[in-house]
Amino acid sequence: MGQGIALVCAKNGFDTHVFEIDAARAARAHEALRAKIERMCEREKLPPSAARAMGERIVVAAHLEEACAGAEFVIEAIPESLEQKAELLARAKNAAPAEAVLASNTSGLSITELGRRAGEPHRVLGLHFFNPPTAMELIEVVVGAETLAPNVERAVVFARSLGKTPIVVRDSPGFATSRLGVTLGVEAMRMVEEGVASVADIDRAMELGYRHPMGPLKLTDLVGLDVRLAILEHLTQQIGERFRPPALLRKLVTMGRLGKKAGIGFYRWTESGPVPEAWE
Hints:
Mean pLDDT: 93
Helix content: 40-55%
Radius of gyration: 19 Å
Number of helices: 12
Oligomer: single chain
Shape: globular
Strand content: 5-15%
């Protein structure tokens, strides 16, 4: 997600600094971004000059202070851990200029709590991008209880400058999109558990019958089964039993079948595309 967000920012004219936790990871990120820029330009038929310009706008740093110097927006996109995200935002608060907006790409953690733990809740808000950020139009702007209105306005303008369509939601468990998305995904998983229909047919039902671009189980693979599990556990704690994770989801995560990033989840991911029959 972090690399995808960086590509979107660079493509739309922003100088973009990417922070990785050490030099080795920074070097790998640099190579990965270079390859993704080339593929992105090939798909979109952009001229070579566009690829060069995007590459020149991206700097990969192994030090947070270097990455945050002069930043207008700091967007963290690390795993869904309240403690880790809050710690990183607190460090970014000190490394970035005082007027910088501190944004989390969380899909469900409390923006209000992140802001309080970071130490400056008026600067913290959610900028929830969707996977892949280079293709998905929506950005969910999540407003914490103490987020200042001018920072929300800046975030909306920033989202539009990236060619995205922002929606503004109040900080609540699961926000709007995650809460709706996981509800559909959970029911789809329970239908698989009960033998109602196959993975492929459940996804086809939503793609063809409801015009969803991707079925809920394929989308779960793309998001990551471990990410969906973490969201559901959080929502169960905050809202109640209707979000309790299905046993099938826990089983697949335990088996390491985390979705596309692991090569297998509800589908087996191959060079020619996802194959649902591999595990059913």
